[in-house]
From TrEMBL:
Localisation per UniProt entry: Cytoplasm
Gene Ontology biological process terms in this record: cell division; cell wall organization; peptidoglycan biosynthetic process; regulation of cell shape
GO terms of molecular function: ATP binding; magnesium ion binding; UDP-N-acetylmuramoylalanyl-D-glutamate-2,6-diaminopimelate ligase activity
Residues with PTM N6-carboxylysine: K214
Annotated source species: candidate division WOR-3 bacterium 4484_100
Residues engaged in binding ATP: G106, T107, N108, G109, K110, T111, T112
Span of the annotated motif Meso-diaminopimelate recognition motif: 394-397
Pathway participation: Cell wall biogenesis; peptidoglycan biosynthesis
Keyword Cell wall biogenesis/degradation: yes
Known EC number: 6.3.2.13
Enzyme class: ligase
Protein name: UDP-N-acetylmuramoyl-L-alanyl-D-glutamate--2,6-diaminopimelate ligase
Function noted in UniProt: Catalyzes the addition of meso-diaminopimelic acid to the nucleotide precursor UDP-N-acetylmuramoyl-L-alanyl-D-glutamate (UMAG) in the biosynthesis of bacterial cell-wall peptidoglycan.
Binding site for meso-2,6-diaminopimelate: R370, D394, N395, P396, R397, G444, E448
Amino acid sequence: MQLKTLIEEIKKEVYNFQDVTISDIEFDSRKVKKGTLFIAVPGEKFDGHKFIDDARNRGAVAVVTERRVETDLPQIVVPDTRKIMSILARKLYGDFNELKKIGITGTNGKTTTAFLIHSILNRARISTGLIGTIYYIGKEKTRAEKTTPEAPDIYRLLNKFRNEGIHYVVMEVSSHALKLERVETLKFDTVVFTNLSQDHLDFHQTIEDYKNSKLHIFDLLKDKGTAVVNMDDPIIKDIYRRPLKHIVTFGMNKNANFWAEVLDEDINGITVQINHQGKKYELNSRLFGQYNVYNILAAFTTAFLMNINPEIIAEGIRAVSRIPGRMEQVVENVFVDFAHTPDAIKNVLSSLRKYIKGKLYIVFGCGGDRDKEKRPKMGAVATELADFAIITSDNPRSEPPKKIINDIIKGIKGNNYKVIEDRAEAICYALKLKKKDDVVLVAGKGHEEYQILKDRTIPFRDAEVIVKCSVNL
């Protein structure tokens, strides 16, 4: 597309104009190639305006900035480069209205719900892509960099999906993505809202801002789109206040449009009966825990509203045996989970408690440079629900690990805990404590394959450490 056509409808000031051909849009100068329009976005740590020369050297043919800078490239100055990024990406790559888009948001359950819906649609022979925390899945599977990528990356993925003949896209939508307008120019056919509890207050500052950012996803729902929401979560009151035309509820409450009751459960899975308009549908899942009943409900409801045969839905749910880092049993009675909020820790420990005969141990920490208010709350809930907690490092980032650990300890009333700063040592210590009927939960990092320290990022995977420690016991 020609630059003149691409920018013709936006508010701007233009310098050094040449009507060059734009083949791509990029905000990361390291990924720029010949024919790229480079957008200089100010970030928390780095300012894209400082990398314009690097972008030029790599092949950028024009730049979008928030202030005039010294460059011989065509330069388009706009009030907000982050906001304009999604607008330009949509215009360059297309609006993708023909792709049916299912957006999933909420504090907990996004990833599991997305995997379940993706599995169901594939069982129904509906070609489906997935954009989520762990993977981006089309015809190929790649590791995700962010739960919800930046706008140009989203549009490139959608373009790739369309070229692969994909018709549906299941997308996890984070509060950061909603606040930073990464998905602002998308329109969703279905929006799923799982639940809301405290998280990301380092970014949002207040729970109110976090909540409102999450609720903004409903503003991106198509006029004829459907909101699939958790009736049992207090957020339902805020959702009902919004001018939504099509709301469908799920929950354990009989007043929900789709409600479930647990028929059987153990550590190997769960059997639920979903009730809707007088009909009953029995489902077996290899996932377990009541919190997963809600994820199953959300997936079943979404698929049912797409007129997918309930038997196919049941097959799709049953096919999901494990999700990396989501209550993943690595060795016998040793689990890894991504739980990194007070509510998530509570849900996972409460679920495990039902199935064990011995003691319940938890190894966890909290991320540095992130929501500090949740640290003592996580310490409190972990030591209340587990028999013993080993408090360690998560991703300390720029903060001293001891400071983070001390914040966690502030919420602990008893003495049923031990501090081991080194995460690998902490995991091995927990496994040494474990007896035959005991269970160990290693929480917080889940699927992550790294640990972010002050001056470096190192390879680190909880599951690998568990296997290694188990062999050496």
